[in-house]
Amino acid sequence: xxxxxxxxxxxxxxxxxxxxxxxxxxxxxxxxxxxxxxxxxxxxxxxxxxxxxxxxxxxxxxxxxxxxxxxxxxxxxxxxxxxxxxxxxxxxxxxxxxxxxxxxxxxxxxxxxxxxxxxxxxxxxxxxxxxxxxxxxxxxxxxxxxxxxxxxxxxxxxxxxxxxxxxxxxxxxxxxxxxxxxxxxxxxxxxxxxxxxxxxxxxxxxxxxxxxxxxxxxxxxxxxxxxxxxxxxxxxxxxxxxxxxxxxxxxxxxxxxxxxxxxxxxxxxxxxxxxxxxxxx
Length: 281
What we know:
Beta-Lactamase; disordered C terminus; 434 Repressor (Amino-terminal Domain); alpha+beta; 2 domains; five-stranded antiparallel β-sheet; about 45% helix; globular
């Protein structure tokens, strides 16, 4: 770990970013050049004290998970992210396999989407980034670990929890779509990849998954329209727009509704309330 190089790099990248680059307000009395330490810490979901110690050359070695969060918070390019890992004493992530790294171009788009649910997902249906409206609709995905991060895994392994977000009439279609999406990832990355690990785990716990898997359907096409169920607002029919990265390993999903519709009113309520619990209002 090169503490001096790490501290200098973090400081320079923080100073080069503007609040508007990461979806924050400038504020009327701002004197700081670039982002404040506290703002970087907030974006990376770490304590301000921990981040400050990294810049002051006295912090512990950051974990791989922490570096992944910092890469997103500082909007690092792939080359910058690799450098961050190396000066922190870790090997750079393999760019040819699944990664939690989110392209700055997608992050810039989602930073500007505050009025409708939007999130970035991997080919394994892992939510990598989500805005407040998406958290209010689907829940906070940041606490999930391991295979539980994959919506494909949760759909078949935790059906009583995961399927409440969709009407029962859509369960079979959605399940088949997820199995077909996993097979597409499995075909690309092979049986020893995370896709292969999820496939093997689901074979052991879900006969339904095995049935769908044996049909050999292969596709990864996002639905143009779907109905989601919120526990307090009920069913919300939304249009889905997907912006894929060039290698199609990640997608930015944006949910909208027709202006003036009941669904649009319910999405507006989500936007106003943010992550607040509707039952408490």
